[in-house]
Amino acid sequence: MHQAPSEKSPPWAAHVTVAAIVERDGRFLVVEERIDGQLLFNQPAGHLEASESLVEACVREVREETGWTVEPTGIVGWYQYHSNTINVTYIRTAFAARALAGDPHAPLDHGIVAAHWLDLTELEATRERHRSPLVLACVRDYLAGDRYPLSSVRRF
User: Rounded to a whole number, what is the distance in angstroms from the first to the last CA of the chain?
Assistant: First the structure.
């Protein structure tokens, strides 16, 4: 039997995030970020803001975290991940994106130490330093050719 949540507990809500899978010459754009004192790798990624579309969020997050301007070309997939460490569920839309231009002098978001271009072997070798299992899962799906058209996400 389903029980209604108590008035003291907030309603459950997932965190809506976007990520960009940006490949150039067989290498993938990743960020190295400091999380709770650890240096971890992730795709350029972040939370959707209330006033933007998922595509706009993708472009903004890549620019803020890496200094690169990108053009999303498709959706690699949608991912649901629950972090037991912090008891948070994430719903991620991962976009394939083309790198257009990089600004090596752009200020990076708080916590971002550096942006790197890593190949698949390097990504696999750093697996223990990935922010979540989504990092490698998204790259593998991208390499498998998984793509959905941008038009499959409609904003009203």
Answer: 35
